[in-house]
Amino acid sequence: MTCRYIYVCLICFVCSSLFSCNERNKKNIKKIVEEWSYKKIVFPNNPTFTRFAKDTIIGYFEKDCSYKVLTYIDSIGCLRCHLKLDAWKPFIKQLEDTFPECNVLFFIHPMNKKSVEHLLKTENFDYPVCIDEKDSINKLNHFPVEMQFHTLLLDKENKVLAIGNPVQNPKIKELYLKIISGESAYTHIDKPLTQVEVNKKSIKLDSFDWKQEQTVDFILTNIGKRSLVVENVITSCGCTTVEYSKEPVCSGKNLILTIKYQAEYPEHFDKTITVYCNAKESPLQLRIIGDAK
Q1: If DSSP codes are grouped into helix, strand and coil, which group holds residue 23?
Q2: What HEC string does 194-239 produce?
Q3: Mean per-residue pLDDT, 84-110
Q4: Are 116 and 131 in contact (CB under 8 A)?
Q5: pTM of the predicted model, to two decimals?
Q6: Which residues does residue 196 pair with via DSSP β-bridges, in sequence order?
Q7: Domain assignment present for 20
Q8: Contact between 226 and 251 (Cβ < 8 Å)
Q9: pLDDT confidence of 5, banded at 50, 70, 90?
Q10: Which of 96, 202, 250, 261 is found 20 to 30 A from 126 (Cα to Cα)?
Q11: Are residues 148 and 288 located together in one domain of the fold?
Q12: What's the mean pLDDT in 87-105?
């Protein structure tokens, strides 16, 4: 069995957890992964990387690295939601501390450069980014439509080793780290599973003043025989945060997820909270919906 075949099979399995488990989605994921696996990424000539979209970082792109994490962010939709800078910061710090031979390359195609500059300053994201106003890297490579596949792990020759967003899926993150560290990427350790019952899959909020923070609770009940362990909780937007106990939840006990939503402006919103845990139903998809007036 070739290394490429192993990666394709494993990544198909991992990425399928991002979607509902129907045959159409599985076939689409498999097609994308097979198409992009070991494909060579073409970069624009001499891309400029800056800090806070202003100060040029000389030599950042030219660094001799064994691996690169490439992420492309387009101009469609909420830029803050797409970037998820608060999630990228600890991941980049982990790579810098443990795997200095890996470089992270942000290519952002914004509708407005000023909006990117403001967001980077607001989030205090001082890592180098390339403001790709002409959308050059996408025109050269034609990335998949699905945003989940806009992040790629590349080797020294810019060939794709893995595809998927490591800050939105802990399984993808684990896969990236295993490949970079040289561990067996297809080793799988079975975890003891339990069962979870959720009091509500979605909560609809009444209309409210957009300046007022909203708080709701989801209750997860462990109805299985094993302890429930939440590995990660990821929100679809930076304006949504989650608080919960990190302790294992015994059989028959509850775990409360406290969701806080702070609108940046008046809008109708539909936000997703994805819970990764050792339950057979994982990942759990929760939603909050409402109108911020």
Answers
A1: helix
A2: ECEEECCCEEECCCECCCCCEEEEEEEEECCCCCECEEEEEECCCC
A3: 91
A4: yes
A5: 0.75
A6: 222
A7: no
A8: yes
A9: very low
A10: 261
A11: no
A12: 92
